[in-house]
Request: fold
Amino acid sequence: MSVSTPLHKAVTDHDDNSTPSPPSCFHCLSRSPTFIELQQIEDAFVKILGLKPIFFRPPYGNYNDMVLSILAQRGYKCEFSLLSA
Reply:
C-alpha cells in the first residue's frame, strides 16, 4: 500500500511505500512519551498548515486524566461530547 499523504510526508520527512505506525494509545503512555507524540503531531500540522491545532481528539477516544492535563497545559481546548442524531 502506498502512503503519500501530506501528513505522512511531514511526519516521516519522506515519501515512500512504507506503512505508517498506528496512532499511539495515549492513555497507555507515560507523561514524557505523550509530550513527544503531541509535539510531533503539532510539528506536522505547523509544517503542513502553518498553524498549531487547538483541538485534539485522542485516537479511538482513549484518554485519561493525565492526557487531559497535558492537552490543557499545551493550550488545547478539551471537550468531548456525544451528540444525538
Notes: The chain has a mean pLDDT of 74. Helices lie at 6-12, 31-49, 65-73.
